[in-house]
Amino acid sequence: MSEDGGLEAGAMSAKAGGRDELLEEVLSSVAEIGKRWGFELPIGRIWAFLLFQPRAVTQREIEQGTGYSRGLISRTLRKMDTFSMIRVFKEGKEMKYAVNISLTDGFNDFLRRLLNEKIKPMIELLSENLEKVEDEALRKTFSTLISEYQRLRILITAFSKILNDIKAGKISEEDVERWIERENGATF
């Protein structure tokens, strides 16, 4: 397999038959979905490969199953761990990797990190420096940005709460869908 996710002959080492074809179809589909979400193709393919594994696997096994180089796998796994897409643990002397099948948990973790590591610090930076800006137009721009970041903070906090409440069984997905339909006229 090439570094960008293209399949080369013989790159997959999954079992023969229909499972092989299904695995390749899932790997390719998930890689494409990931690419549309702004992830690199290897993230989607490795996540899909892990999805098909009955147990946690080593980087060597990922290399054998995807055809990717060890360096690309290592870099990709670090990114995937950052987005809570995988679980990483040590077994003996080896690191093992398993898929985090809960996409909502991973997305929620990503949103909380975005909020705490990027959005809140930006609000603080702009707020602390607002009065120092002498140019009225620039001060107005800072003020507008602060308002926008505050709205984003509220949105992420509310969305995260909704995800947590659905997971805890406090509200159902159907309740949320009905609320959205009622408020926006949108349908699913």
In short:
The chain is mainly alpha-helical and 188 residues long. It has helices spanning 18-36, 41-51, 59-66, 70-82, 103-129, 136-168, 173-184, and strands at 86-91, 94-99.
Q: Could you describe the 3D structure shown?
A:
The protein is extended, with a radius of gyration of 21 Å. The protein starts with 17 loop residues before the first helix and ends with a helix. Helix content is 65%, strand content 6%. The chain is mainly alpha-helical. Residues 1-16 have low confidence and may be disordered. Helix 5 runs antiparallel to helix 6 (136-168). It has 7 helices and 2 strands; from the N terminus they run ααααββααα. The longest helix has 33 residues, at 136-168. A two-stranded antiparallel sheet has the order 1-2. The chain has helices at 18-36, 41-51, 59-66, 70-82, 103-129, 136-168, 173-184; strands at residues 86-91, 94-99. It has 2 domains: 18-99, Arc Repressor Mutant, subunit A (Orthogonal Bundle); 103-184.
Features of this protein?
single chain, 188 residues, mainly alpha, 2 domains, 2 strands, 65% helix, 6% strand, disordered N terminus
**Termini separation (Å)?**
37 Å
What is the correct CATH architecture of the largest domain? Orthogonal Bundle
Report helical residue fraction.
55-70%
Biggest sheet character: 2 strands, antiparallel
CATH topology of the largest domain: Arc Repressor Mutant, subunit A
Approximately how much beta-strand content do the residues carry?
Answer: 5-15%
- Which residues form runs of ≥5 with pLDDT under 50? 1-16
- Count every beta strand, where a strand is a DSSP E run of 2 or more residues: 2
Quickly count the helices: 7
Cα-atom Rg, whole angstroms? 21 Å
The chain-level structural class is mainly alpha
Count of all domains: 2
Q: Overall pLDDT, averaged? A: 82
Spatial order of the strands in the main sheet? Answer: 1-2
CATH homologous superfamily heading of the largest domain = Winged helix-like DNA-binding domain superfamily/Winged helix DNA-binding domain
Strand/helix succession: HHHHEEHHH
Query: What CATH first level of the largest domain would be assigned?
Result: Mainly Alpha
Identify the overall geometry. Answer: extended
